Amino acid sequence: MRLSIRYKIILPFAVLLVFVGVIGTGVATAQLTNSAAAEFDARLLHSSLQANQLLSQVDADRMADLRRATDTVGVAESLASGDASTLARLLTPIAANVPAASIQLRVLDLHGQELLRIQGSGPINVSDAGALRGQPAVISVLAGANAGERAAFLSDQPAQPVLYWVGAVRTTGDRIIGAVLLGESVTEVAAGIPGSTLYDLSGLRLATTLPAAPVASEAVRHQLTADNAVRVNETLAGHYYGTLFSTWIIHGSQFGFLALTADADSLLSLVAQQRLILALVFTAAALLTLLVGTATASLLTRPVELLVRSMRAVSAGDLQHRATVVSQDEIGYLARTFNEMTASLEEKTAALEETTFASMEALARAIDARDPTTFGHSARVAAVSLEIADAMGLSAKDREALRRASLLHDIGKIGVEDKVLRKPGPLSAAEADDMREHPRIGYEMLKGLRFLQPSLPGVLYHHERWDGAGYPTGLMGNAIPLPVRILAVADVFDALTSDRPYREGLSFEAATAAIRIEAGLQFDPDVVTAFLTRRPAIETILRQSGRRGAAIAEAEAA
């Protein structure tokens, strides 16, 4: 299907608009999603840290309660005499003041036999008097082997897990005569931490506050350390959750694992809402852009379409039809419109080229300024080159290409390190190789600019020699473009008359003699002849820039 001119103009922009919009919407959505996910993760981490602090606080509180029980006056004597009723009277108030509803207090003699159990509001009958004496923590405390005679352990009843704190009871003679145990249900411990799940070391779930708890898989447990938490995303009971697993530490020992879970449904909802808003905004912007673009294209292409129709009619021999299709006024309108469009395009193109070149020239000047001894070098080379070009009768087009090449010829030094550019002595072989790369670097930087194509040989070949011993390609004789041969002489003459860290600049006479000697070797003899012809004007240019050669000439004249 043949498309009209207006749609041929609009279609590429429409495709580009859709492409940019899809990519832009995707990138924006990803950024918003990452931002929301980061905020969610930060909240989850904060909650996990708070949960671990709560567990540490429970440990500290129960140890304090245990210390009050073991250190209460009369407990040691009553335990030594086996007086359970006195023990109950002394310890019941302590158990009653513990805020945990499931708290239980047990008293064991030195052999691990249970003498008293207090649960809730008072003592209860002891049905399994020796149930806890086989626990390693209890044995250790009764034997005095545990530092401080305080320990904690988890009961071996998975159905109703209880967390115990055990402390030794001593006589006034510092002899251990028994122990007191404080037990709190793990379910109640977990209930104090919303969104938490507690597991033993094997990954068995002990207690949770969630309707559906995450699984502490072997892979997750393997990654967990005291310093490393593990983040897991999963769907539980139809809802999306984020879970942070960490170790569960009580009284300095790992008892299992803690999982802190947060509902991430709100995160997904927010992301979906943001994606929808972005899609709607893009769609509205795209429709508006296409509408305005279509209207503008119609106005711009109407004269061209009239001309195309007329040309088709004429080429088909339908002269009568041509007269009806386009009038004399329309022909005049078409001609004026076409001329105005052409002039405007040329003007904008020229302005764009000048702006681009100005940016490149500013960069080249900045590169010259990296070393105070080369400041203004490119501008002086351009001025000297144009003097020689005038002597050799170069066309205006070639002179402009030469001027631009002169101003940009060292732009590739942007890729050379300062320690090489500013070295106060001769360069090493490696440093010289680095320096010789600057013509290629400059060429690669500028080769994509179409309007600079005539100037690129000057950038790439300004270190080539007439005898073929130059770099980077070893061009020889007339194979080197004439403007480049001119640039080479101007470049060397300015360098010879400039101070360097390792030498002072030469006088104009000495520098001129050096150029003359290299005629037929480094330089084109014809270019050297033109240089000598324009030497007074060249010296004037360099004298105005404050070159060392000018100072020497003035000193000699005096």
Characterize the structure shown.
It is a single chain. The chain is 56% helix and 14% strand. By secondary structure, it is an alpha+beta fold. The strands form 2 sheets. The protein has a 6-stranded antiparallel beta sheet with strand order 3-2-1-6-5-4, sandwiched between helices. Helix 10 (377-391) packs across helix 16 (482-496), helix 10 packs across helix 18 (525-533) and helix 11 (396-408) crosses helix 16. The longest helix is centred in the first third of the chain and has 67 residues, at 5-71. The model is unreliable at 319-326 and 549-558 (pLDDT under 50).
Could you write a compact summary of the structure shown?
With 558 residues, the chain is of the alpha+beta class.
Strand order of the largest sheet: 3-2-1-6-5-4
Mean pLDDT: 82
Q: What's the helical proportion of residues?
A: 55-70%
| Contiguous runs where pLDDT drops below 50 for at least 5 residues | 319-326, 549-558
Number of domains: 3
Q: How many extended strands?
A: 11
Backbone CA Rg? 46 Å
Major sheet characteristics: 6 strands, antiparallel
Principal-axes shape call: elongated
